[in-house]
Amino acid sequence: MAPMLANIRELSFWAENAASIGLVALVIVFSFLSPAFLTLGNIRAMLIAAAILVILAVAQAFVITTGGIDLSISATMTLGAVGFGLSWSAGRGFVISTVIGILTAALVGLVNGLLIARGKVTDFIATLATLSVATGLALILSDGKPIAVNSSQLLRLTTGSIGIFGYPIILAAVIGAVAWFVMFRTRFGLHVQAVGGNDESAIANGISAVRVRIATYLIAAGLAGVAALLLVARIGAAEPAINTQYLLNSIAAVVLGGVSLTGGKAKIVGPIVGALLLTALTNGLTLLGVSQFYQPLAVGIVVVLAALLTRFQKK
Fold first, then answer.
1. Domain annotation covers residue 9
2. At 139, phi and psi to the nearest 5?
3. In 3D, which of 106, 69, 99, 94 has the Cα closest to residue 224?
């Protein structure tokens, strides 16, 4: 019996720290295979590339902690980017355009929250529907064409840095810190975890599960709007075509980070590390000359292994 318990504890350790252990292992392996991997330039490039995924992973973590999932998050980001681009092209300036972009994205989150919490539509169906609607709206509003954005503020956002830390990853880190504080040091965060743990018990203790669910989808969509700003800054245009890779990787980062897909188990640092791991994996494979066709396969294998390990997480 004792050896069995020891094995379970060992598996639990690996499950709880899968993202951190995996990231360290990747860094060691790729640093040996490619001399360019641990150069300051490549590290800075990886951190900048990871910023969008870090923000989306944090957003997804709030929703998944309640036991839900947001399949529309990538389309929400795309629609927010188009909202920013249209406002900018209309001459409204950077600040107003940023607000419009975030509010446009947040509107999708409000619809998601109302459909799921009030309309009792399952999260899978509701967010799948808004994914399609947001994608269609982005294409209609932009006429299916990228909206060029030439902004000095966005240029500073993409080129500015403090040491090796570019402004995008600094912004992502600030969002992560605020999210951690909200989740673990505020009453709202405790309510999010309570609703995910046991809906009926949370309601019996006076928690409004409806409001909590609406709020989490609003937060997720609002963060997708912030990510949209970084996306526009990165490519210099508001691209109306959805990038499903961000959707899949945001969920993958949360799974790697040890957040339970059944809800009630909150983590913020874990999903952030998961996002860094996925970025490092893609970057390392690219440096090694591995075809992009094989990269999703590698990500999928890593996520499946992490999902299997979650069976041994501490309850």
1. no
2. -70, -40
3. 106
The rounded distance, in Å, linking the Cα atoms of 139 and 124 is 23
The one-letter amino acid code at 120 reads: K
In a domain, 194, yes or no: yes
Per residue in 103-139, pLDDT (tens digit) is: 999 999 999 999 999 999 999 999 999 999 999 999 9
In a domain, residue 206? The reply is yes
Given a contact cutoff of 8 angstroms between Cβ atoms, the answer to whether 267 and 314 are in contact is no
Classify 106 as helix, strand or coil: helix
Domain that holds residue 37: 17-312
| CATH number for the domain harbouring residue 97 | 1.10.3470
Q: Can you name the residues that pair with 224 across neighbouring β-strands?
A: none
| Euclidean distance between the first and the last CA atom of the chain, given in angstroms as a whole number | 20
d(CA 28, CA 25): 5
The two structure tokens encoding residue 30: 């790729």
DSSP 15-72: HHTHHHHHHHHHHHHHHHH-TTTTSHHHHHHHHHHHHHHHHHHHHHHHHHHTT---TT
Domain count, the chain: 1
Does residue 1 form part of some domain?
no
- 173-176's contacts with Cβ under 8 Å and 24+ in sequence apart are 173/54, 175/54, 175/55, 175/58, 175/223, 175/226, 176/54, 176/58, 176/268, 176/269, 176/272
Question: pLDDT tens, 282-306?
Answer: 999 999 998 888 888 888 887 777 7
- The pTM assigned to this predicted structure is 0.93
